[in-house]
Every structure is written in C-alpha cells, then in structure tokens.
Specification:
The chain is an all-alpha fold. The chain contains four helices and no strands.
C-alpha cells in the first residue's frame, strides 16, 4: 500500500475515492466468500460462530494497532460488517438447505 503525496484538496479527495472503491470491492469479495462458507455449515448456530467472529475482530484490531489506526474504529466497522454478513450467510445457508 503506497501513499501518494497530494498537492491539492481535489487530488487528495480523488485518491480517497479510489481507496473507497477498492474497500467496497474487497468487502464484496469477502461477502462472496461468506456465501460460499454457508454451504459448508450444518446449522444456523454454526453460521453464527461467535468464536470465529471474536478471532477475526481480534486479528483486525492487532493489524490496526500495527498500522497506527484506531483499533476501536476497526472493531466497530468489523462488528457492523460481520453482523450484515452473518445475515447474508444465514439467508444463503437457508437457501442451500431448502429451508
């Protein structure tokens, strides 16, 4: 990840827009893997996998600290993202199992 030195407000905003596009693409990619994972699970309780959620958030918090970013911000973002993706995974699980 390379930070470009910007010389104007518009240039900095354009770079932020590019980063935002990549973030959304990565979130979509993550969500597609979540949908695949639903096919390997055997129950809705297994979909919810709190131990896995805790592990993912813990890892993201450590990475945030390493990158000098607020771990609380990352924690909140991940909780919200995971909540939405768990709902998506449950729907995919139920569709796959014909529920």
């Amino acid at each position: 990840m390379q930070l470009k030195e910007c010389h104007t407000l518009d240039e900095a905003r354009q770079e932020i827009d590019k980063v935002d596009e990549e973030i959304v693409k990565l979130i979509a990619l993550r969500n597609n893997y979540i949908k695949q994972i639903a096919h390997f699970k055997t129950s809705v309780d297994e979909v919810k996998a709190q131990d896995r959620i805790d592990d993912v958030i813990s890892r993201a918090r450590r990475q945030a600290i390493d990158l000098d970013l607020s771990p609380n911000l990352i924690n909140d973002l991940y909780l919200r993202m995971i909540d939405g993706m768990v709902e998506s995974e449950i729907a995919e699980f139920q569709n796959a199992k014909g529920m």
